[in-house]
């Protein structure tokens, strides 16, 4: 899917999270805190194996909502927020897309468009929203987020279009915008009556602080906008195979909350019936215990720091090797993905000949240098 | 600044009956209350039961430092998929040997039905099957309708199944509907322990069903949620599916491991695909991948690991079979005792169906008014259809339940 976008990315995620816990084969180990909690869960005699509620474990959805919106969010206090545990971020996007398809602008028979810069477009189409359009967010050739392009395209979008936005600079084509840029964007969303659908993956891993990473989302909520947000906990918690996701729904009025909840239950019933509990239990245990929470925060903070270091090392290594081109964009970009600017053939070379997907930065730098300088 | 108008216009959805039942039960403060609508196994102390073998394997998993904790492949854990399909079709399955059987790990039985339905709607017979009739038994698990409708099937029809008067299978009706169904229709059938009636066709009856389906080119989509749990024997409970495979059918089988592993919470399911040949299978699986990517991307690992480790280890497998038999035996005991007590009380009507039916559920034959009486006057909760979950019965409450049913049947129409 990344190849579809015509860009190439190096994922720093597994490296970042487990740099000192990486195995020989490059696979990520479970972070110690998570492993400890999983042990506790496996020996806890009070935990039973009954079905979770359709919309998920309440202790998880509460904490997931709190992590995204903060403790003093007015929308939560006013009971305008619904949180639903989903099967990963994909599950959250799928459920959100289905709810929009059924219940957004019903009287007009609305079927789109959905503006989306990321690979989730197939999910929207499968949910019955075929009119999926891209908006520009990169300054091509400079490999940096372009506020100008984003605003231009959104200003031209039809009113009440759904716009998918990456709250954190985690998605490969995330809009890595400053707070000032986000304020402009939010203003356009308001004026054009656009419906924001945030994607928040790796909250805490981008700026090293979950609150700062959630700023774009919280800003829009504070403006009173109605919006959805799909959260993933894979990267921030090292819980990949467990499929922990969350769909946040923020409404303008609380009168519709129960109705929307009943419709969401109905939709979930035909998708997966109930979500799986292990990952959600782990996350809830982390977020609801002050000592665990502190340890987790420290973990994401240092992971984000390591990412910055890795970017610097990669750039420096490429410079020392004399790799053709300029590599400043590596350190100018933020987050856990790194848009290298390599071509499709060069990326294929990395995979086939050098088996580069993640790991040891020296090896990565050498491989990139080879990709750029050898005949392919 | 006044925010723009609300754009989400949402009516309340019809409540799901079994959820409401659970809620009503929870709010009831009577010390005698009994929940016969619960959808999960309960011990004689009315507690949920984590199977001992599951507890053991879960601890093994946590301690195993060599495990890869990344995303599973899109179609799921390979050793889970193969062992799950093998459990359904048998170790000696020719179809498996011929390499034309595949599995897709899904979110429980519902997930397996969902993926199967989405595939069939796109690819079953021609490119657009929204008009292809899908037949579900009358009655059936109410979510069958929802899953197929949501997948885009517009023509979902009942086939005759339950003879209310005789409290038995309406075989003639079933066969008649098979004969008159348009060719290539899809038939959703319960592999064993029919939900909600508890009545399964006998092997002879299955043979008749298969003969018509073969002749009329109908597609079997099995729902297998109770293998092992129904009779205590994995082989016995898989007889129908294996027979159809032996007759050369291409078919789907949606397997759930919620009940027989007690893993309700980890959503462990497998869609077993029996294709004509390996080439077809490969193409089917590639399309399944595309569908999975738009719903959950890749499935959760925990439950699949537990099942795979158990099924692939002879000692753990034997221990699991013991655990399953424990559950099945308790259900059989409650059936026998309920029938005996009702007969001893001289409750009007016949009660043989309670021991003739199989699996977790029994279609008691109680009328809606009798059901209402039980919940309002006796604090005994069951589905309006008269379906009870045998697991809700214990040696401690069975006398109370039997007496209350006796009262209801004697005084209420």
TrEMBL record, chain A:
State the needed cofactors, names only.
pyridoxal 5'-phosphate
Q: What is its EC number?
A: 2.6.1.1
Q: Is GTP-binding found in the keyword set? A: no
**Swiss-Prot/TrEMBL keywords:** Aminotransferase, Pyridoxal phosphate, Transferase
What GO cellular component entries does it have? cytosol
One GO biological-process annotation of the entry reads:
aspartate biosynthetic process
GO MF terms, alphabetically ordered: L-aspartate:2-oxoglutarate aminotransferase activity; pyridoxal phosphate binding
Q: Which InterPro entries match?
A: Aminotransferase_I/II_large, Asp_trans, PyrdxlP-dep_Trfase, PyrdxlP-dep_Trfase_major, PyrdxlP-dep_Trfase_small
Q: How would you classify this enzyme at the top EC level?
A: transferase
The Aminotransferase class I/classII large domain sits at 32-360
- Please indicate which superkingdom the organism of origin belongs to: Eukaryota
Q: Which Pfam families match?
A: Aminotran_1_2
Does the entry feature the keyword Transferase, yes or no?
Answer: yes
Subunit text = Homodimer.
Q: Which family does it belong to?
A: Belongs to the class-I pyridoxal-phosphate-dependent aminotransferase family.
Protein name per Swiss-Prot or TrEMBL: aspartate transaminase
Organism for this UniProt entry = Scleropages formosus
Q: Could you tell me the gene encoding this protein?
A: GOT1L1
TrEMBL record, chain B:
PANTHER family, alphabetized:
ASPARTATE AMINOTRANSFERASE
Q: Mainly localized where?
A: cytoplasm
Give the EC number(s) listed in the UniProt record: 2.6.1.1
Q: Which gene encodes it?
A: GOT1
Q: Where in the cell is it found?
A: Cytoplasm
The record's Gene Ontology cellular component field reads:
cytosol
- GO terms for molecular function, please? L-aspartate:2-oxoglutarate aminotransferase activity; L-cysteine transaminase activity; pyridoxal phosphate binding
Provide the organism lineage as a comma list: Eukaryota, Metazoa, Chordata, Craniata, Vertebrata
Cofactor(s) annotated in UniProt:
pyridoxal 5'-phosphate
Please list the residue ranges annotated as the Aminotransferase class I/classII large domain: 32-405
Q: Which domain of life is it from?
A: Eukaryota
**Name the UniProt record assigns to this protein:** Aspartate aminotransferase
Q: How does the annotation summarize its subunit structure? A: Homodimer.
What keywords is this UniProt entry annotated with? Answer: Amino-acid biosynthesis, Aminotransferase, Cytoplasm, Pyridoxal phosphate, Transferase
Q: Which reaction does it catalyse?
A: L-cysteine + 2-oxoglutarate = 2-oxo-3-sulfanylpropanoate + L-glutamate; L-aspartate + 2-oxoglutarate = oxaloacetate + L-glutamate; 3-sulfino-L-alanine + 2-oxoglutarate = 3-sulfinopyruvate + L-glutamate; (2S)-2-aminobutanoate + 2-oxoglutarate = 2-oxobutanoate + L-glutamate
Family, per entry: Belongs to the class-I pyridoxal-phosphate-dependent aminotransferase family.
One BP annotation, GO: aspartate biosynthetic process
Q: Which organism is it from?
A: Scleropages formosus
Cross-referenced InterPro entries: Aminotransferase_I/II_large, Asp_trans, NHTrfase_class1_PyrdxlP-BS, PyrdxlP-dep_Trfase, PyrdxlP-dep_Trfase_major, PyrdxlP-dep_Trfase_small
Entry's Pfam families?
Aminotran_1_2
Further comment: In eukaryotes there are cytoplasmic, mitochondrial and chloroplastic isozymes.
């Amino acid at each position: 899917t990344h190849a579809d976008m015509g860009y190439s990315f190096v994922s720093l995620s597994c490296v970042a999270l487990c740099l000192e816990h990486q195995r020989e084969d490059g696979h990520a180990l479970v972070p110690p805190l998570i492993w400890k909690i999983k042990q506790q869960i496996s020996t806890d005699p009070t935990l039973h194996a009954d079905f979770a509620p359709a919309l998920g474990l309440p202790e998880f959805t509460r904490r997931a909502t709190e992590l995204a919106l903060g403790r003093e969010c007015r929308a939560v206090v006013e009971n305008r927020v619904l949180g639903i545990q989903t099967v990963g971020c994909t599950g959250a996007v799928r459920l959100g897309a289905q709810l929009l398809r059924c219940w957004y602008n019903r009287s007009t028979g609305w079927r789109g468009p959905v503006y989306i810069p990321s690979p989730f477009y197939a999910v929207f189409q499968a949910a019955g929203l075929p009119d999926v359009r891209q908006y520009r967010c990169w300054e091509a050739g400079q490999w940096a987020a372009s506020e100008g392009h984003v605003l231009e395209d959104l200003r031209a979008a039809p009113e009440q279009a759904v716009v998918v936005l990456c709250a954190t600079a985690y998605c490969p084509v995330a809009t890595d915008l400053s707070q000032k840029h986000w304020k402009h964007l939010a203003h356009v969303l308001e004026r054009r009556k656009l419906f924001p659908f945030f994607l928040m993956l790796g909250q805490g891993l981008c700026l090293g602080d979950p609150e700062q990473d959630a700023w774009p989302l919280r800003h829009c909520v504070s403006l009173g906008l109605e919006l959805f947000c799909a959260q993933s906990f894979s990267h921030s918690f090292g819980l990949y195979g467990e499929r922990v996701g969350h769909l946040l729904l923020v409404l303008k009025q609380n009168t519709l909350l129960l109705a929307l909840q009943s419709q969401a239950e109905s939709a979930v019933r035909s998708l997966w019936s109930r979500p799986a509990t292990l990952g959600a239990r782990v996350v809830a245990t982390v977020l609801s215990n002050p000592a665990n929470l502190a340890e987790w925060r420290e973990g994401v903070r240092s992971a984000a720091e390591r990412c910055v270091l890795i970017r610097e090392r990669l750039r420096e290594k490429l410079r020392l090797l004399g790799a053709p081109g300029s590599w400043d964009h590596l350190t100018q970009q933020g987050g856990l993905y790194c848009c290298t600017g390599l071509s499709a053939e060069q990326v294929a070379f990395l995979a086939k000949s050098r088996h580069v997907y993640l790991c040891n930065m020296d090896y990565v730098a050498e491989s990139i240098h080879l990709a750029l300088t050898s005949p392919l | 600044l006044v925010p723009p108008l609300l754009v989400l216009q949402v009516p309340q959805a019809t409540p799901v009956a079994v959820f409401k039942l659970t809620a009503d039960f929870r709010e009831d403060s009577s010390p005698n209350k009994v929940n016969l609508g619960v959808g999960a196994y309960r011990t004689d102390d009315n507690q949920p039961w984590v199977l001992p073998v599951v507890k053991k394997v879960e601890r093994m998993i946590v301690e195993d430092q060599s495990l890869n904790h990344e995303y599973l492949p899109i179609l799921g854990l390979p050793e889970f998929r193969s062992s799950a399909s093998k459990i359904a079709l048998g170790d000696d399955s020719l179809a498996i040997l011929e390499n034309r059987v595949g599995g897709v790990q899904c979110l429980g039985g519902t997930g397996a039905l969902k993926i199967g339905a989405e595939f069939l709607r796109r690819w079953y017979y021609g490119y657009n099957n929204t008009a292809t009739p899908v037949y579900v038994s009358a009655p059936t698990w109410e979510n069958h309708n929802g899953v197929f409708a949501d997948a885009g099937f517009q023509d979902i029809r009942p086939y005759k199944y339950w003879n209310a008067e005789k409290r038995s299978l309406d075989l003639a009706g079933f066969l008649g509907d098979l004969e008159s169904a348009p060719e290539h229709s899809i038939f959703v059938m319960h592999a064993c322990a029919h939900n909600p009636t508890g009545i399964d066709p006998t092997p002879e009856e299955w043979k008749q069903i298969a003969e018509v389906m073969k002749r009329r080119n109908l597609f079997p989509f099995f729902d297998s949620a109770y293998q092992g749990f129904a009779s205590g024997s994995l082989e016995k409970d898989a007889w129908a599916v294996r027979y159809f495979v032996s007759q050369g059918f291409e078919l789907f089988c949606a397997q759930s491991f919620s009940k027989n592993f007690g893993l309700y919470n980890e959503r462990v399911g497998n869609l077993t695909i029996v294709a004509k040949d390996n080439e077809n299978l490969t193409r089917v699986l590639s399309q399944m991948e595309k569908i999975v990517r738009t719903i959950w991307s890749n499935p959760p690992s925990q439950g699949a690991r537990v099942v795979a480790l158990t099924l692939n280890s002879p000692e753990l497998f034997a221990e699991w079979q013991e655990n399953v038999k424990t559950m099945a035996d308790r259900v059989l005991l409650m059936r026998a005792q309920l029938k005996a007590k009702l007969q001893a009380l001289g409750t009007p009507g016949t009660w043989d169906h309670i021991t003739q039916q199989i699996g977790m559920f029994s279609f008691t034959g109680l009328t809606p008014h009798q059901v209402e009486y039980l919940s309002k006057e006796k604090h005994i909760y069951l589905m309006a259809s008269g379906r009870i979950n045998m697991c809700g019965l214990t040696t401690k409450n069975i006398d109370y339940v039997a007496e209350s049913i006796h009262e209801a049947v004697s005084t209420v129409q």
